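Re: the request from the purification team.
They wanted to know what the chain is likely to look like in 3D before they choose a buffer screen. I agreed to run a prediction and write the result into the notebook, where they can find it.
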Amino acid sequence: MKTKYILAAACAALASFSPAFAGGEGWTPDFAAAKKQAAAEKKDLLMDFTGSDWCGWCIKLNDEVFKHDEFKAGVKDKFVLVELDYPQDKSKLSEETQKQNEELQGKYSIQGYPTILLCDPEGKPFAKTGYQEGGPEKYVAHLDELRAKKVTRDKSFADAEKAEGPAKAKALVAALDAMELEDEMVAAFYPTVVDQIKSSDPKDETGFGKKLAAKQKFAAFEEELNGFAAKKDHEGALAFVEKSAGEFEGDQKQQIVATKAMIYAQMGKFDEAIKAIDEAKAVAPDSEMAGQFDGFKKQLEMAKEKKAKGGDKEEEDDEKEEADQ
């Protein structure tokens, strides 16, 4: 009887320690095992970076998509499902899993949740997405569209193998462009591709070198601007932004001018902020970012009106106080 109770207690302990996946059955937290399975079964990896007990959009994605049989049936022959959870309740995960997830968060430059990555069996990402409305069938169709990026990537890599010089560089650039990954992810997982582009196209006929240099310059700008933000030095930030705007062009310049509007707004200088947002829109009127400026401008105008009403009330209060005295 004693042995029976010991075994029952051990089974209960193991059951309580087993992870409960937000997306239901079919997911694994073991990244290394998932890669081996994907290689053996000739499947891709679907990696869900989630906050299962606090992230509203993660919970919504699980409830609307991942938990449904239509989703599981639609992906079972294409993906090995990997859930990388970052819950507030750390007791849900073993220390080993927590350590693995922290390392993968840094490796894949994860900035928000949910982040869904499609990767080949080696763990190299070829597409990125997140929450999509429409239910499981629509999400499966969305994933199928994203899998086409891998086909384009691999075809471009194959074309590059047969080419030399700028033609080789052009094929490699096409591979990177097809995946639409952030620069940090490209640098982490495709560094040899970047090196081959540079060496194959020393005169930069593809324009890749120029774009890369511009991105690196903008990253340096953002880092320096963050220094002003940390010190809450609005005047210094404004001067830095004014000086830097002329050093960039296109979307990057537009973003910098829009940053000026935000700084003015933080200072309560709404007339200047409105003028700056108009300047930002004029830099590239047809850009995707420009389409968001009208809404931001309305918010600035409302904030300006609210401030004006608040100022009038303060003056009335001061006058009433003087009259009472």
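For the purification team: The domain at 212-312 is CATH 1.25.40.10 (Serine Threonine Protein Phosphatase 5, Tetratricopeptide repeat).
Please add any questions underneath this entry.
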